[in-house]
Design goal:
Blueprint: H1 2-19, E1 43-44, H2 51-54, H3 67-73, E2 107-113, H4 117-127, E3 134-137, E4 162-166, E5 183-187, H5 206-214, H6 222-232, E6 233-236, E7 252-256, H7 262-273, E8 289-291, E9 293-294, E10 296-297, E11 300-301, H8 304-308, E12 318-321, E13 324-332, E14 337-345, E15 348-360, H9 363-373, E16 376-377, H10 379-384, E17 391-392, E18 403-404, E19 410-411, H11 421-424, H12 427-436, E20 447-453, E21 467-472, H13 484-488, H14 492-499, E22 507-508, E23 510-514, E24 522-524, E25 535-537, H15 544-561, H16 564-567, E26 572-573, H17 589-598, E27 601-602, E28 634-636, H18 651-669
Bound molecules: flavin-adenine dinucleotide and 2-acetamido-2-deoxy-beta-D-glucopyranose (NAG) (4 copies).
One 2-acetamido-2-deoxy-beta-D-glucopyranose (NAG) is lined by residues 49, 51.
């Protein structure tokens, strides 16, 4: 029996091989198999090696046992896997090369570095129509069944699905984090940060993009980018089925979150009482309050990989290589032309050529990191590390981020209004999610509503928000410090003193996010070892206006909570003081400044490190067509090009940038 099967498989293989054409990317009608000469031949690694991926990994499952995962493992569907030591590998998504290929080839038309939010859509569009061959290189692995569960979103910040970056120590901010350093995790997976994010779908307001265009970035006005948002989108939103502002035929599903707590309604009712409008925040008329629109599909995470790569795993001209870490872009120093990349995979070093272009989609930390390692960056900085300078550009010199304050906790006198790990981790809820795509496990870890406000200290004219406030049905205390606090790397002294005492009381938070910080950060190389993270300088709250705006937003949130919709549940600000702020009067401006400086939390929207700008902008790294200045055949296409802060979380913008980038590249090479 076995041997019969083997024989069958063998014959099948022969058949497949026989069908491969000399032109190995074309469809299968032909006769010749792929010759060895077209395969890339790796070398062994000498100088800097990817030791992490070689060394045997210590897989102990998930740090900080998750009740939700335990509940899922008790369902009949997953029972078989209960004893798997590497829980995250259960039903892990795989990306093998298309049939007949035994390894990566020596050259492709395009090489895309990073299969993140932008990289996935880019690779998918470039390989459409089979006119060009594409190699997509990704340092991370395929997503797991559990990364799909919205309720678990914060968990992955403690796993191998992230790059565990730390911001450099900055006195006076992040004081309540471990070692007083802010944690900047970024996604490391096929799907990138869209595999670990909170799934909030947001685009930014017309004013944001029109300001970007007005700086000389032709093609980036709201009117011009909207079609690219809509192209990807497959919206299924209650009350918006006739909206002109949403796409319905794309691949990226955008839906309402099936589970809603009563607090989400209280949030919108309270906003109404304060005069805020209920809006579609992803329409041009977006200044107001709304339920979250989420990148989920029937209650399960819709990553960029699921949306754009899954259906195309068998495209012969799209080769996807996970666990492949790029360390350098190959650039001819004389002609200043990019011609390939160097990467590490399974402890071996590959060099592969790009006939048309190399595209960096490695995100806002690694795209500038790779540019500098390859000789494109500030001249004196590169020279100080003995990196030969190919082109002097201000790579990494601009870095904006969206900081927030997740420290408010409002307690309630009623029960069953908030989510707690204990009450959502039931077999029934696990089955609801897996079978029907609904129930409490579809919650975006408690995040439910969003509102754009203009604080009373804003100097903007018109309806231009300076703060986004995020409503939720959970607080740092509701998961007993297991997920959110660990995701922030909150120090134990702070958690134990302020949040542990309210673990058994229902509580929720409302988070203000500073939309347009005046402070600006930057990043630099620490060494020329590509495996060492760059030094990240957030420069948070350097400008007094930033602190003042956050304090003003806390006042606004307090007004919101003091309205009847919240008061009928007895919502009350927890008055446990941050122990390091004891010298100030609770609820004074000075107290809130201290608290904000203690829990200065990034919402992970680092941008501008490869800033887009016209030739006249000395701080620009790429032009409005995303081509790196001074280097031929090299573009950056990801969130690092966004030149200014916008009222958006950055996943949808990165996907839009991927769409628009693909369109521009196809134009350049006549591929449409
Ligand atoms: C915890 C968290 C929550 C968030 N929540 C939201 C949210 O709710 N809504 C929202 O809109 N945004 C959210 N964001 C932000 C958003 O997800 C990111 O800004 C967006 O995904 C960035 O897309 P990108 O394409 O620029 O980069 P990424 O998606 O980060 O992609 C970069 C990819 O390149 C790979 N890579 C990097 N270096 C290399 C290398 N040297 N070799 C090979 N591969 C490499 C990485 O592994 C990664 O897969 C969140 C982010 C985090 C971290
Ligand atoms: C990494 O591995 C290489 C080769 O296997 C070895 O020479 C080097 O010392 C290692 N480096 C570190 C930091 O472990
Ligand atoms: C794996 O890690 C755990 C906890 O981090 C540790 O207790 C254990 O000894 C490690 N096992 C190996 C084989 O390194
Ligand atoms: C803004 O509102 C706060 C109270 O909510 C008040 O103390 C402050 O004076 C106001 N500031 C301005 C500039 O109106
Ligand atoms: C909670 O407090 C509010 C306001 O004080 C009150 O109206 C309500 O009855 C209380 N509910 C419970 C269950 O105690």
């Amino acid at each position: 029996m076995i041997s019969q099967i083997t024989l069958c498989l063998f014959l099948l293989c022969q058949l497949v091989l026989a069908k491969i054409k000399t032109n190995h990317f074309e469809d299968d009608e032909a006769t010749v198999s792929i010759e060895d000469s077209v395969y890339a031949h790796p070398q062994s690694c000498e100088l800097f090696c990817d030791n992490d991926s070689i060394k045997k990994q210590n897989l102990t499952g998930i740090p900080g046992r998750s009740l939700v995962i335990e509940a899922m493992l008790r369902t009949p569907m997953l029972q078989l896997h209960q004893s798997d030591p590497d829980i995250l590998s259960i039903l892990q998504d795989r990306y093998d090369l298309p049939k007949g290929f035994k390894g990566p080839l020596v050259e492709y038309d395009f090489i895309v570095v990073g299969a993140g939010s932008a990289g996935c859509v880019l690779a998918s569009r470039l390989s459409d129509g089979r006119k060009a061959s594409v190699l997509l290189l990704e340092a991370g692995k395929g997503e797991s069944l559990f990364t799909g569960v919205p309720a678990l979103a914060p968990l992955f910040q403690q796993t191998e699905y992230i790059w565990p970056y730390l911001m450099e120590h900055q006195p006076g901010v992040c004081m309540g984090m471990k070692n007083e350093r802010c944690y900047w995790p970024r996604g490391k997976a096929v799907g990138g940060t869209s595999v670990v994010n909170y799934m909030i779908y947001s685009r930014g307001l017309p004013e944001d993009w029109d300001r970007i265009a007005a700086d000389g970035n032709y093609g980036w006005s709201y009117k011009e980018i909207l079609p690219f948002y809509m192209k990807s989108e497959r919206a299924n939103l209650k009350g918006l089925s006739d909206s002109h502002w949403h796409g319905r035929n794309g691949e990226l599903t955008v839906e309402d979150v099936p589970f809603r707590s009563k607090l989400s309604k209280a949030f919108l009712d309270a906003a109404k009482l304060l005069g805020h409008r209920k809006v579609d925040y992803n329409s041009p008329d977006g200044f107001g309050f709304s339920y979250i629109q989420a990148t989920i599909n029937k209650g399960v995470r819709m990553s960029s990989a699921k949306a754009f790569l899954h259906k195309h795993k068998n495209r012969r001209n799209l080769h996807i290589l996970p666990k492949s870490r790029v360390t350098k872009i190959l650039i001819n120093p004389t002609t200043k032309t990019a011609y390939g990349v160097e990467f590490h995979r399974d402890g071996r070093l590959y060099q592969i050529k790009a006939k048309k272009e190399v595209i960096l989609s490695a995100g806002p930390i690694e795209s500038p990191h790779l540019l500098m390692l390859s000789g494109v960056g500030p001249r004196s900085h590169l020279a100080s590390l003995d990196i030969p300078v190919i082109h002097d550009l201000k790579v990494g010199e601009t870095l904006y981020d969206h900081i927030s304050f997740p420290g408010l906790a409002f307690t309630l006198n009623s029960t069953r209004l908030t989510i707690t790990a204990k009450n959502i981790a039931t077999i029934q809820n696990a089955l609801s999610l897996m079978q029907y795509g609904d129930g409490p496990m579809t919650t975006l870890a408690g995040v439910e509503t969003v509102g754009y406000i203009k604080t009373n200290i804003s100097e903007e004219v018109g309806d231009y928000p300076d703060i986004e406030i995020i409503g939720s049905c959970a607080s740092i205390a509701t998961d007993n410090g297991q997920l959110v606090a660990k995701g922030l790397q909150l120090a134990n002294w702070l958690y134990n003193d302020v949040y542990k005492p309210i673990e058994n009381i229902e509580s929720f938070t409302v988070i203000p996010m500073l939309l347009h910080p005046k402070s600006r950060g930057y990043l630099k190389l620490k060494s020329k070892n590509p495996f060492e993270q760059p030094a990240l300088y957030g420069n948070y709250l350097q400008h007094p206006k930033d602190t003042a705006t956050l304090i003003a937003s806390i006042r606004h949130i307090q007004k919101l909570i003091n309205t009847p919709p919240f008061q009928k549940y007895g919502a009350k600000l927890s008055t446990r003081k941050f122990p390091n702020c004891k010298q100030t009067l609770f609820d004074s401006d000075a107290y809130w400044e201290c608290a904000i400086r203690t829990m200065t939390a990034t919402l992970h929207h680092q941008i501008s490190t490869c800033k887009m700008g016209p030739a006249s902008d000395p701080s620009a790294v790429v032009d409005p067509e995303l081509r790196v200045y001074g280097i031929k055949n090299l573009r950056v296409i990801d969130s690092s090009v966004i030149p200014k802060t916008t009222a958006a979380h950055t996943n949808a913008p990165a996907i839009m940038i991927g769409e628009k980038g693909a369109y521009m590249i196809k134009n350049t090479w006549g591929l449409d």
